[in-house]
Amino acid sequence: MHATLPLLKESDFPAISRDSAETLQVNLGYLCNQTCQHCHVDAGPRRKEIMDKENIDAVLNYLRIKKVKTLDLTGGAPEMNPHFKYLVREARKLGVRVMDRCNLSILEEEGYEDMTAFLAENQVEVVASLPCYLSDNVDAQRGKGVFDASINALKKLNALGYGEEGSGLSLTLVYNPQGVSLPPSQEALEIAYKRELKLRYGVIFNQLFTITNMPIKRFGSWLVSKGEFEGYMQLLRDNYSEENLHAVMCKSLISVDWQGYVYDCDFNQMLALPLMLKGKSRPHLKDLMAHDLHGQPIVVMDHCYGCTAGQGSSCGGALE
């Protein structure tokens, strides 16, 4: 694995600061049933890092005390955390909106047969990665057989009402580019996805997010090994848009790792760049209880150009 942090440190990215925190994004662990080429988490079946019950309860306590509106669950495959259902149920009791960043194929794995029904029962918003509507492209990026498993999972979600307008069950698909390119227009690609998935497989969904691949972890290492890192960074810089600065996700989101430590965003988490808090070199979620982070400086480096290039990119898709 090629480290990219030393290549990102010297940066002229503009200073930005936090607004009020509206979303708590929690990484429940790096364990995953897939090993995707574009994964910035370096997740996979052999990873052992999993959030324990004590930190799960710290998450719930923070949601309760700070009145955070949205809980965004990620991984790895977040459903593989043994406390996933407990966390979802308790968060929903608090009236919190819960999002599950699902890789779809996990819903087809042995031992997870009831997961689709559980998500629907608790009105969890499913945000599902599907980098293409063609099987060859998906399997090349995510592994053989992943596309077919993903389509089967989407059909199960549709059968329960996911993707239907007015059902209260939101289904969002996520597109990541292959190789060294920025995502195309989110609006145009959503139209193509809806047309092709409906025509080919009878699958429906509510919206599409396009997300730029970040030059860190597995994808960053791949760029270095192919001699493409500098070229990709130049692409991001050349397409920088100042208008995207006000909407980047780090302004209203707190990222929590599997041990409960906090960061400005998921990407900073993967680079081990903790959120700045006076008196704490590595603050834990529990340390934030007595603090208002509004106006707090955000830790930035060159990878931040990935969120501001072109139409912009965040966990909520394009910014423009």
- Report Rg: 19 Å
Low-confidence stretches: none
Sketch the topology as an H/E string, one letter per element. HEHEHEHEHHEHEHHEEHH
Largest sheet: 8 strands, mixed
Characterize the overall form.
Answer: globular
Beta-strand percentage? Answer: 5-15%
The CATH architecture assignment turns out to be: Alpha-Beta Barrel
Content-based structural category: alpha/beta
Number of helices: 11
* Share of helix, binned: 25-40%
On the 0-100 scale, what is the average pLDDT?
A: 91
- CATH class label: Alpha Beta
Question: How far apart, in Å, are the first and last alpha carbons?
Answer: 34 Å
Question: What is the total number of structural domains?
Answer: 1
Strand order of the largest sheet: 6-5-4-3-2-1-7-8
Number of strands: 8
Task: Report the CATH topology name.
Answer: TIM Barrel
CATH homologous superfamily annotation:
Aldolase class I
Structure at a glance:
By secondary structure, this protein is of the alpha/beta class. Helix content is 32%, strand content 11%.
Defining key terms:
8 strands, 8-stranded mixed beta sheet, TIM Barrel, 320 residues, single chain, globular, alpha/beta
